[in-house]
Amino acid sequence: MISKNLLYIACLAGLGGGRAAAQATVYPAPPQQKPVVLTNAVIHVGNGQVIDHGSIAFAAGKITAVGAGVQGEAGAQVIDLKGQHVYPGIIAPATELGLTEVAAVRATNDYEETGELNPSVRAIVAYNTDSKVINTLRSNGILLAQTAPEGGLLSGTSSVVQLDAWNWEDAAYKADGGQHFFMPKLLPSSDPFRAAQQTPANDRVKEGLKKIEQVRTFFREAQAYISEKKHTETNLKFEALRPLFAREQKLFVHCNLVKEMLLAIDFAKEFGFEVVIVGGADSWMIADLLKQHHIAVILAQPHNLPVMQDDDVDQPYKTAAQLQKAGVLFCLSNEGFWQQRNLMFEAGTASAYGLSKEEALSAITLNTAKILGVDQRTGSLEPGKDANIAVSAGDILDMKSSKVTHAFIQGREVNLDDKHKQLYERYKYKYGLK
């Protein structure tokens, strides 16, 4: 992908002023040195179970015990949480995190390539671990993310990263786990003037269907190429699709309308892909069909208006509960990169519109881990899994009471400082509010 350059550094320095370098002191924590036990806490396991007055022990980056009266190893560091809440580290799926820094500054955007069919592009190699945005997510308990490319039709592969790393190699939690297909919108222009001007020659729906067929043809050609034992020439784009056809990757199809999701199901049926819908605004309409075909959904931007004018105005808030009732595997996401810091509050809204609090928590932890293929390592607080843990003084789904006091990634206690906190302290000092 497009490499970072000096203009990128200059832009950040200019935007941040004299304090821009301050966050350079927020560096990754060293590996866990001694066992840790968190005691006297309300433990939200992530699978629906809640343990009052519980404890959780972890050593060498792995959870060793969870429950009431857990005793740590000899010499363990014991932290009395005095009734605080312990959660699995929240996971943000389908983000541009680390691929863009200032949306309005082109030099800081590194999330897309030229051309429409780029399955060989790897987002992970462009992931910027020095992004100032990452720390604002960690401060809210978001400890892992799926960083994904955009642009064109087939944008390339996404990877799951942990948010406390020196470089992209350290950050990689599960590399190249999915291909991303941005399906054209099959909806006429909402602009009355443009809609009136549409003709068969510039019909947006017709043009969208044509592009979708282009992708289908590309997959068919790739399938034929992969089925051959020997090649006179190597096609790098087709080679990049081998893991997808082998079901070692998932196809993340970005779409919202029913007709678009039906086409995504057709791709799953024709090619045997494991498909995940990203967006899924109208997924509630075909929840039974999605369940039947084992299609998971990443609900994007739950704090939004409905797609269609005749939908209930609160439909985006209710969709999660409707998918839960239908038995569809789903999780929550937030479009963009810096907006991800509000992910847990969107889960809180979903809990006010039909989900239980623990179901809402699963929608940003264990469910996400299952969809991203990392549930054997993270997503819930169970022995044997990585110690990815967030501690909040109050309910982490409630913006009024959520205050993350500790965070651990693979057992390492990470620094919760960020640019926002530094500016808060700066201007408290300036106006004599300390």
From TrEMBL:
Superkingdom in the source lineage: Bacteria
Gene Ontology MF annotations: hydrolase activity, acting on carbon-nitrogen (but not peptide) bonds
Statement: the UniProt record of this protein carries the keyword Protein transport: no
SUPFAM superfamilies: Composite domain of metallo-dependent hydrolases, Metallo-dependent hydrolases
Signal peptide location: 1-24
Domain Amidohydrolase-related: start-end pairs: 350-414
Key words of the record: Hydrolase, Signal
PANTHER family in the record: ALPHA-D-RIBOSE 1-METHYLPHOSPHONATE 5-TRIPHOSPHATE DIPHOSPHATASE
Protein name per its UniProtKB record: Imidazolonepropionase-like amidohydrolase
